[in-house]
Amino acid sequence: MANAPGRVLAIDVGDKRIGLAVSDPTRTVAEPLTTLTRRAGKRFPMNQLRRYLDEYHPVHIVIGLPLTPDGDEGPRSAEARRVGALIAAKTGIEISFVDERMSTSHAHGAIRDLGGGTRGRKAEVDQLAASVILQRYFEQRR
């Protein structure tokens, strides 16, 4: 399915916010989509995600994998993999994981480059981070 034509959805999993980005059907452009919210200590908001799955019909989902600076997996990586397994089980959509190191920093930089500040824009940062993750996935596939 990873090579099947159609949209790819990227997910930047966080404790409070989950950034989403989606590609166009030709997988040329990654664009920020939205930010889902999760109450601390609560389950992944699968019902919120389903709305976007139903609207965009992605054929593949990419999840950012938070690695340590050394490139190792830690507790946050385990959570991302757990979310990926949940989404795959509930939807049947194939999941890939992409190293998300520095994606938030790149998102902050993009906002600053456009002349804006990031204060009070955490949701936008999370969406942009998901876009960075999606672009990395496309670059790895080329």
Characterize this entry briefly.
By secondary structure, the chain is an alpha/beta fold. It has helices spanning 46-56, 75-91, 103-113, 122-141; strands spanning 8-12, 17-23, 30-37, 60-65, 94-99.
Q: How much helix, percentage-wise, in residues?
A: 40-55%
User: What is the first-to-last residue Cα distance?
Assistant: 16 Å
The CATH H-level homologous superfamily? YqgF/RNase H-like domain
Structural class: alpha/beta
Q: What's the overall average pLDDT, rounded? A: 85
How much of the polypeptide forms β-strand, as a percent range? 15-25%
Q: Look up the CATH topology.
A: Nucleotidyltransferase, domain 5
Count of runs of 4 or more consecutive helical residues: 4
Query: Assembly state here?
Result: single chain
Strand order of the largest sheet: 3-2-1-4-5
Shape: globular
Low-confidence stretches: none
Order of helices and strands: EEEHEHEHH
Secondary structure: elements and pairs:
Elements: E1 8-12, E2 17-23, E3 30-37, H1 46-56, E4 60-65, H2 75-91, E5 94-99, H3 103-113, H4 122-141
Parallel strand pairs: 1-4, 4-5
Antiparallel strand pairs: 1-2, 2-3
Structure explained in plain terms:
The chain is an alpha/beta fold and 142 residues long. The protein has one domain: 2-Layer Sandwich (Nucleotidyltransferase, domain 5). 42% of the residues lie in helices and 23% in strands. It has four helices and five strands. The protein has helices at 46-56, 75-91, 103-113, 122-141, and strands spanning 8-12, 17-23, 30-37, 60-65, 94-99.
Which key phrases capture this entry?
142 residues; Nucleotidyltransferase, domain 5; alpha/beta; 4 helices; globular; five-stranded mixed sheet
